[in-house]
Amino acid sequence: MNVNKSEKKIVILSGAGISAESGLGTFRDTDGLWEKYDLNEVATIDAWHRNSELVLSFYDARRTQVLASEPNKAHYALAELEKHFNVEIITQNIDDLHERSGSKNVLHLHGEILKGRSVLNDIHLYPINGDIKMGDLTPDGHQMRPHIVWFGEAVPRMLDAEEIMSHCDILIVVGTSLNVYPAAGLRYACPDNSVKFLVDPNNLPLGDQQFEHFQGTATEKIPLLVDKLIQEFKNA
Ligand code: BV8
């Protein structure tokens, strides 16, 4: 056993809010993405069948933004936490900012914008650092598509995420409005006796579970929460 590392498992459930201060828009805040685009035109499986070019250009633009963005202090603080605890990050985000800040255990529930796959399956993934156009084919000869879970598509990593959550001692929910299912229901897979924290400038209706609310932005509050957890572990 590594005496410098706690046995406690920390699970982070993150959403668009943790990447907001890296310049990547959220979805449902005022001036959010779904105020500029109709979700049904660009982020559903029906939209893909109806107008693939429009969907591809929507994700090409977001991929360009992700490539131009940098992790922020919240991402780096969560990576620091891994030196002291077993940390698993379950993110709804499709950016790679958790990985780029040094986090090692990141599960992307809704896919990854820097990866592509065949329209036929989500087994083989291919790195994508530019645009995807109609006619771009995977080695199996089928159209390449973004490795993204669109609305109306099943969430293949949900069982893995529930398994991780079921062993959680400390849960941190950061930067998500918990509007999207089944991801939003993951908090219920967390053991009742786990300690739960919410980091968000807004309040969320979480009254059926006991959350301590660090009210504020991710870059303000995640470093404070990480320091608190590390200090408590060192003084234990
Ligand atoms: C499925 C990839 C079945 C694309 C995404 C009616 C009721 C309930 C559910 C449904 C319904 N109708 C349909 C459904 C199901 C649907 C759903 O939940 N719809 C919602 C809109 C109601 N779900 C699905 O379709 C899922 N699949 O159900 O499949 C099935 C089964 C078998 C076979 C076939 C089908 C698939 C859902 C996945 C969709 N893909 N993303 C993309 O990214 O473009 S979801 C999308 O929303 C993003 O991934 C995003 O992560 C996710 C959630 O949004 P948030 O991250 O929470 O962002 P949001 O803007 O909402 O909130 C930001 C938060 O941050 C706020 O709280 C804000 O206060 C805070 N914040 C802001 N600034 C900061 C901050 N916090 C900290 N610091 C800051 N600085």
Describe this structure in words.
The protein is an alpha/beta fold and 236 residues long. It folds into 2 domains: 6-23 and 71-110 and 155-236, TPP-binding domain (Rossmann fold), CATH 3.40.50; 25-68 and 111-148, SIR2/SIRT2 'Small Domain' (2-Layer Sandwich). Helices cover 31% and strands 20% of the residues. The strands form 2 sheets. Strands 3-2-1-7-8-9 form a 6-stranded parallel beta sheet, with helices on both faces. A 3-stranded antiparallel beta sheet has the order 5-4-6, with helices on one face. α7 (97-100) links the parallel β2 and β3. The chain starts with 8 loop residues before the first strand and ends with a helix. The relative contact order is 0.18. Ligand BV8 is lined by residues 15-17, 20-21, 26-29, 32, 43, 92-94, 110, 148-155, 175-177, 179-181, 200-202, 217-218.
